[in-house]
Amino acid sequence: MIAKKRQDKNPKVNHINVYGQRLSKPIKIAAALAAVFFFSTGCAEQGPIGNAKVGESKSAICAQCHGANGISIVPIYPNLAGQKEQYMVLALKAYRSGERVNMAMTPHARKLSDEDIADLSAYYASLPPGGN
């Protein structure tokens, strides 16, 4: 039996999504706009949010576990020196809200304001990753 080549009834529909469904032009445009919005907001690298100088003055409690230069001497605690600022902001806010829970971090993060989080994140992002 020879298979016939399927003819599309609507020649304007010519793209297939990951589920094998055909997409029309308006859907393709909407998907492209959503991708542009996503990559231009949440994933784009932003400039510093906080004040690194002020963050340094607020970092004494952090230094007890993460080291004075952002390099922890205790293997179970992560190094903060050179950490990306946006990541630190998101992580600290997640600890503060309870979305992310850690016996050591959650109680400290709950005491931080948005400004404290921004300043601490800017400070640790400004340090060299090697801690020198």
Tags for this entry?
132 residues, two-stranded antiparallel sheet, 6 helices, 2 strands, 3% strand, elongated
Account of the 3D structure:
It is built from six helices and two strands; from the N terminus they run E-E-H-H-H-H-H-H. By secondary structure, it is mostly helical. Helix 2 packs across helix 6 and helix 4 runs antiparallel to helix 6. It is elongated, with a radius of gyration of 24 Å.
Layout of strands and helices, then pairs:
Layout lengths: L14 E2 L5 E2 L1 H17 L10 H7 L1 H7 L18 H13 L7 H5 L4 H13 L6
Antiparallel strand pairs: 1-2
Helix pairs in contact: 2-6, 4-6
Q: What is the C-alpha radius of gyration, as a whole number of Å?
A: 24 Å
In total, the number of strands is 2
Derived from helix and strand composition plus strand pairing, the structural class reads mainly alpha
Spatial sequence of strands, sheet with the most strands: 1-2
How much of the sequence is in beta strands? Answer: under 5%
Low-confidence stretches: none
> How many angstroms does the end-to-end distance come to?
74 Å
Individual helix count: 6
Sum up the overall morphology in one term. Answer: elongated
Q: Mean pLDDT, nearest integer? A: 82
Helix and strand pattern: EEHHHHHH
Helix content: 40-55%
Largest sheet: 2 strands, antiparallel
Structure described in brief:
This protein has 132 residues and is mainly alpha-helical. It contains 6 helices and 2 strands; from the N terminus they run ββαααααα.
